[in-house]
Specification:
11 helices, single chain, globular, Rossmann fold, about 325 residues, 7-stranded parallel sheet, alpha/beta
């Protein structure tokens, strides 16, 4: 076992941060470390938090983490932010909003940039979850970018997915129900001290009544005012109820299988991309083809066929 993996398994925060950086930077050292880490993962419960921007997800996660810490549980937080076009790093940096938690040894917070990935997640998030899991975290909370309908990939990795809404966004439920509304295990109406909370709740209840016909579980709606720490304990209880439901119905195991499938596909995708663009011969070929495409001597589809044909032979 490497020294880095050994330190991660002991919960050393610097080693955890370093290995997550390996994942983000697609380091050549990552695979060997993750072979060790994977054997020690699978114990942490993963909670995904998604919803429109401005719904107070970061504050909600801050209070969730505090509630879990009061229970004596160790918490990992992965906050996915839009990528800076200049540095490639996380643009918003949610750790600024969770300053009080950074002083708690039982909490590890990491902001990650999407780096061009769609679906609200960064490609390294699968590795980051396993690393935090193996380091001894009991709960790992993932916050997606939160820009609307596309934030659905979190369901591939989370055991429980929270969809956060707030009053005062007009026809928000109608405009986003085709995307993130369909992946909720728990609906959270945050900022419940605002006017219009009853209207949002009624719309959600109507949607649930339609979508849950024939299902064994009705999706709950929890009202919270995170900035005042109201409704947080109810939310923690509901997450626990969903966890028990998953284990009772044997859905938990199938969801974990889906996570590993998504992780495997992502690793294959990254390795194929590296093979195409990092190998000098292919890089030279791509550059040559771009010149031909620019001169209209070759079209992008034919160029792609030639590149893929060379790989698949």
């Amino acid at each position: 076992m490497s020294d880095l993996a050994s330190k991660v398994l002991k919960g050393d925060p610097r080693s955890v941060a370093r290995l997550i950086s390996f994942a983000e930077n697609n380091s050549s050292e990552l695979a060997d470390e993750m072979r060790v880490i994977h054997k020690h993962s699978g114990k942490a419960y993963v909670v995904g938090v998604t919803g429109v921007m401005g719904s107070g997800k970061s504050t909600l996660i801050f209070e969730l983490a505090r509630a879990y810490r009061k229970q004596g549980k160790k918490v990992g937080i992965i906050a996915i932010d839009p990528t800076s076009p200049f540095s490639g790093g996380a643009l918003l940096g949610d750790r600024v909003r969770m300053t009080d938690l950074t002083m708690d040894d039982g909490v590890f917070i990491r902001s990650m940039g999407t780096r061009g990935m769609l679906g609200g997640l960064a490609s390294a998030v699968y590795d980051a979850v396993e690393i935090l899991d193996a380091s001894g975290k009991d709960v790992v909370i993932i916050e997606t970018v939160g820009v609307g309908q596309a934030e659905v990939d979190v369901v591939k990795i989370a055991d429980t997915t929270l969809v956060v809404l707030v009053p005062g966004l007009g026809d928000s439920i109608q405009t986003i129900k085709a995307g993130i509304m369909e992946i909720a295990d728990v609906f959270v109406v945050n900022k419940a001290d605002r006017s219009g909370v009853e209207q949002v709740t009624a719309e959600l209840e109507s949607l649930i009544d339609i979508s849950c016909i024939g299902k064994n579980r009705k999706i709950p709606i929890i009202k919270t005012t995170a900035k005042e720490n109201k409704g947080i304990n109810d939310l923690v209880d509901e997450i626990e109820k969903h966890k028990n439901y998953l284990k009772k119905t044997k859905v938990f195991e199938s969801q974990r299988r889906k996570r590993y499938e998504a992780e495997l596909v992502e690793i294959i995708r990254k390795r194929l991309m590296n093979f195409i663009f990092d190998e000098s011969t292919f890089k030279e070929k791509v550059e040559s083809m771009i010149d031909q495409i620019s001169k209209k001597e070759l079209d992008p589809y034919t160029a792609a066929d030639e590149i893929l044909g060379g790989i698949l032979k």
